[in-house]
Amino acid sequence: MLTEQQPPEFVLAGYAGSSDYERLARVARKASIICIVDYDMPGVGTVRDIARTQYTLHRGEEVFMVCARGISYIHAFGKADFIGLCELRHVEFIEPPHSAAA
Questions:
Q1: What highest taxon heads this organism's lineage (predicted)?
Q2: Of the residues 7, 21, 35, 92, which has the fewest C-beta atoms closer than 10 A?
């Protein structure tokens, strides 16, 4: 968890949150992963939303997304782009059980 950098209302109480984006890219290739993502809301400021990863291949190129309810917070072509956008959006993901992530 990023407790030192985030306001208290952004901290995931008791959940095994992670910002290991290399790991997120690895497990997102196998399953949809629950994520928390920051975004800017005009007139309000930064807020957080719960979303999930999606992964596909498009013409042989990896495509990673973090989205919820038709909103695509991250749409990245390739792992390096995905990791950079996760850093920008301060993505935190819920660690899946080890059996699901294997």
A1: Bacteria
A2: 7
